Amino acid sequence: xxxxxxxxxxxxxxxxxxxxxxxxxxxxxxxxxxxxxxxxxxxxxxxxxxxxxxxxxxxxxxxxxxxxxxxxxxxxxxx
Length: 79
Prior knowledge:
Layout lengths: L22 E5 L2 E5 L3 E2 L4 H11 L6 E4 L6 E2 L7
Parallel strand pairs: 2-4, 3-5
Antiparallel strand pairs: 1-2
């Protein structure tokens, strides 16, 4: 009887989360960003676009809360 294959790492489920779950809101003069679960080559461009769309005149900073972050690759560092 054949041995089962070990599970792949990282599991595919890590990459199925969509950046639309990110919360982005202005608080005073800061753009607060939270609930990011992953920043990868597949999600970084979308995250950057969402931030650019919401970073309006008068905002002077970005607060990136990474407490929900589960996976980060080198492309995600560019956000």
